[in-house]
Structures are given as C-alpha cells and as structure tokens.
Amino acid sequence: MSVRAxxxxxxxxxxxxxxxxxxxxxxxxGDPCTRCGQPLPRDTSLIDLGHNDTxxxxxxxxxxxxxxxxxAINGNRARSNPPPKPVRRTSVWD
Length: 94
Prior knowledge:
The chain is an alpha+beta fold.
C-alpha cells in the first residue's frame, strides 16, 4: 500500500486554504457550484475550492462530491494511461 502525500504536497497547503477562505467570505448560500451549476449548501464543510485540471488556478467553489468525483476521474485516467516506458534498444553490434 502506498503512503499518501501530505495535503501541502498535493497542492492543498496554506495558499489553497487561504484562497478557500477568501472565496467563502464572498459566498452566499445558494450560489451555484462552478462544476455542475446546482446551488451550494449552507454547510460550508460540504464545499471545496475547485482547481483546473493542471492545478495552476482555482475555478471556484464546488460541491464536495462534484470536486472529488472530478479528482477521482482524473486520477483514474492518469493511472490507467501511464506514460509509455522508454524502449531499451540493443544493437546487434554491441
């Protein structure tokens, strides 16, 4: 079993947490989820700050389920399509 990296190593450290707080400060219950468009809940513990697929920027507040579903889909896709391993070539002249 592999050890999971820390939240900071996965991109959810202090900058992410501070950005989430800034987004939540402007949040009003019923604002739309940036992923599915449905209203967000009053309980902010059920709201995640989403980021784009390259993790270079935030997309906005999302339902926790929407955000984690997207992360699972991207992670599963990356694991099922790993980059090709380099081919080791040998020469008949070696």
